[in-house]
Automatic annotation (TrEMBL):
<dbReference type="GO" id="GO:1990107">
    <property type="term" value="F:thiazole synthase activity"/>
</dbReference>
<feature type="binding site">
    <location>
        <begin position="213"/>
        <end position="214"/>
    </location>
    <ligand>
        <name>1-deoxy-D-xylulose 5-phosphate</name>
    </ligand>
</feature>
<feature type="domain" description="Thiazole synthase ThiG">
    <location>
        <begin position="10"/>
        <end position="257"/>
    </location>
</feature>
<comment type="subunit">
    <text>Homotetramer. Forms heterodimers with either ThiH or ThiS.</text>
</comment>
<dbReference type="GO" id="GO:0009229">
    <property type="term" value="P:thiamine diphosphate biosynthetic process"/>
</dbReference>
<dbReference type="InterPro" id="IPR033983">
    <property type="entry name" value="Thiazole_synthase_ThiG"/>
</dbReference>
<comment type="similarity">
    <text>Belongs to the ThiG family.</text>
</comment>
<dbReference type="Pfam" id="PF05690">
    <property type="entry name" value="ThiG"/>
</dbReference>
<dbReference type="InterPro" id="IPR013785">
    <property type="entry name" value="Aldolase_TIM"/>
</dbReference>
<keyword id="KW-0963">Cytoplasm</keyword>
<dbReference type="InterPro" id="IPR008867">
    <property type="entry name" value="ThiG"/>
</dbReference>
<keyword id="KW-0808">Transferase</keyword>
<feature type="binding site">
    <location>
        <begin position="191"/>
        <end position="192"/>
    </location>
    <ligand>
        <name>1-deoxy-D-xylulose 5-phosphate</name>
    </ligand>
</feature>
<keyword id="KW-0704">Schiff base</keyword>
<feature type="active site" description="Schiff-base intermediate with DXP">
    <location>
        <position position="104"/>
    </location>
</feature>
<protein>
    <recommendedName>
        <fullName>Thiazole synthase</fullName>
        <ecNumber>2.8.1.10</ecNumber>
    </recommendedName>
</protein>
<keyword id="KW-0784">Thiamine biosynthesis</keyword>
Amino acid sequence: MPSSPHSLTVAGRTYRSRLLVGTGKYRDFAETRAAIDASGAEIVTVAIRRTNIGQNAGEPNLLEVLPPSQFTILPNTAGCYTAVDAVRTLRLARELLDGHALCKLEVLGDPTNLFPNMPETLKAAETLVKEGFAVMVYCADDPIQARMLEELGCVAVMPLASLIGSGMGIVNPWNLRLIIDQAQVPVLVDAGVGTASDAAIAMELGCDGVLMNTAIAHARDPLLMASAMKKAVEAGREAFLAGRMPRKYYSADPSSPTTGLIGS
């Protein structure tokens, strides 16, 4: 598909949707598929340590519900706390997915807050890139480390908006802007989105996309929230492209003409 201002290009492939979604935390695979359809997402991320995509014979296989012929499967390393574990997990994923190179790297530093362990993330990223993986990487909202990941060859950097599963939204938009302004690869917000306005704000800041799971799966109505997130990402992107009006504090600027008024 040809690129357009509304499409997202990652690792040389172009997608219509700038919304990426996870596949965990739903009631069952049927709800997973229905929510993803409602979101319009084309890239779906799968936790290899928690979801069966063929490694557990005899168990329900997610790929039967989300076939790679219809979706780009993005295996991730959720649950890994060392570079060694993350690399091993993605090697397994590549084998299960017939040589699929695109992956999402996340190396966690703490089981309570799930903040990324950046030294281990950098170590794993370097190894994976050398082995031919196309690495999209979950990272802290640190512009220096984001640049280091890009220099290592990662195809996208994915700073957290706030802690995974917190629903707190974007707590530090200024750091995100620093990362966006310097990056030559796509920047996607990953983690912390709670509702549609959070996704719209991320896109209005200039992010190239948003990845989420809990915000949809734990909504009262996941399918309706998935639809809302789709619209929010599209609206935020359009607002970014349109360019917002300047903020004018203490300066009245009436929207109606002031000339030719009756009695003037």
